[in-house]
Amino acid sequence: MKKNREIVCGLAAWLLTACFFLGCFLIPGLSDRISALGNNNILIYGMTLVLFCILFLGVMALTGCWTDGPGLLESTAFKKASLVILLASQLPFWTVCVSRETEQVGTVSMKYGWHTQPLAVMILLFLAELAVFFWMYENLSLKEKKGEWIVWLTYAALVVLIFYCMYTPNIYGRGEQGDNYHAHAYFNSVYNVYQGMPYTHNVTSIYGHYGLFFKIPMKLVHGDFRAFVLMIAGIGTLAYICAFLVLQMLVRSRVLRILAALALTFPVLGMRGGYYWQVWPHRVIFPMLFLLYGTVILKKKWSNLWTAAGGYLLCMLAILWNTETGLLLTVSWAGLYISRLLSRKKWKIRELFFSVGAQCAGMIFAFAGAYGIVNLYNLSKHSPMNSVRDFLIPLLSDGYMTDTLHLDLPTYPSAYMAVITLFLTGVAMGIAGWFGDKEKRRWETDLVFLLSVGALGCLVYYMNRPSYHNLDCISLSAVLLAAYLAQYGMDFVRKNGWENIARSTFYEAMRGGIGLICAASVLAMGTGNVLQFSQNSQIKENFHNTAEFEDFAQQVVAVVPANTHAFGLNVAEVYSMLHWSTQCFTMDFSDMAVRPDSLKELKEQLETEDAPAVFTNKSSLGIWQRNDPETYQWFCDTYKLNNRFSFYNEEFRYFTKR
């Protein structure tokens, strides 16, 4: 075995790429030159990933004659010093990371207990918790069959809590504008398809064609928004069920399973009062379905032509649901099969070309299948086919990656840096198997490679919009990988690794240290979730108060005639509860800046149908005025305000024709 070189090569590749990554942001003028080419966050991130893989491959190839044996790396003093440096470096990193957590856009961490109490006290308490936890793990043990029911009970309890917390139909409950904006962006896309509208240049959805998945279910519930949120809660819960099943198969320690289960639910139960619609469960469900599928076929050794095709079929559905995430998962699926070939003891260049060609064919099938389904739907509605550009909205939009929503990545110690390092470790574990190690390749290594490549791809969403809660899109993958690696740390503790370090190799010592760091992070997230859930349960109360939303809908009924023409933020949500049709179908107003021409179509719809009255709200009119002043003026000249309805911080308005 030549395991020591994996650690050394991985560390060398990581140090060089970390310097490159920070240098691109901090060197004067360099960041500006990269920004001139596009979104500097994504460009630098992409170059960093490619550079790491090239460096790791190159150094591994150059050190092919490496032999593990007596030397500096295997001296007890060097192993202890390396382990101390590795573990001690975590304290300043995470101290800065946590202390500056509240500075990032999109965070709600100022409500967390570790920010409402002195940071030094919280650090000491956590270090004490770590000491007690590892002491108990080292000295206490359960019999093989005992305690398994506790794991399954934990999963079941968390599934119930997740479903309850995700069912939040009162989108105004927290009184924050962002919640109803994101809810509208999502529901408007589904409502358009429910009403039978085809996908056109100006009547489309953001981040995929998920509306097609809801077409039949929404018909069964007459388009009711409350039932739709119930479906979303079910989908979000399904994502967690998949994650728990992967955790059960991937991690052998029952203690780690329980801790990881608590850590997995942190974003929904602990971090937020509700959930971020464009992430939960939109960008989470297919990565988890995909990961569960991969786990089953790899563990059961069912990998063959049919299961590979099944993976690409799942990728096709993922692209249909969310274009960006689906494309990235498709690349990771192709990467898995190429990696498996390269990890074989013997392979021929002809086999490699054939495998690459087969995976390219699979990726084309997945994309073409999703594209074809959307256009079949359009043709069934007697509408022209979408262009590829419209199908990929907003990925090819000029302003998607460089508009006013662009944020600079933090260059001080931040959670995303740890996440990237974690997934690069998983990639390195997969690549290391390409270099002639004669031991049998474990299925977990292939799964870790699949998980890491997919997660690094999905992390592009955060890089494009580095708002703190956007890290949620890869949080489940991060916890699963951390829990898997944490097993090595727990084994290191159980075997009294520090005292017996002389008998372990440098590789085993470093692997144990990395595992200890991962175990500490899983424990921290699990503890934070337990501490925060009770506090956030009060925040969630208004979200579940559907009576307020229903009462408001009845106020509308008392004044506004049924099926009055309507448009704007959360208008479709109100109308759906009354089983009315808005008769106006546009791009969602939350994202109207992406397709401002949709407002001209709105004007044409009102003119063509000679709408006698209109129902909308104040925020929507502000968006209209900002994005198309000319047609907004036409609206003001054509309609007069008849009535107002106040609900939380929004004012709905009923207009009649002059």
TrEMBL record:
The organism's superkingdom is given as Bacteria
Per the UniProt entry, what species is this protein from, by scientific name? Blautia intestinihominis
Q: List residues traversing the bilayer.
A: 7-30, 42-65, 77-96, 116-137, 149-169, 227-247, 254-274, 280-298, 305-321, 327-343, 352-374, 415-435, 447-463, 469-488, 509-531
Report what the protein is called.
Glycosyltransferase RgtA/B/C/D-like domain-containing protein
Write out the entry's keywords from A to Z. Answer: Membrane, Transmembrane, Transmembrane helix
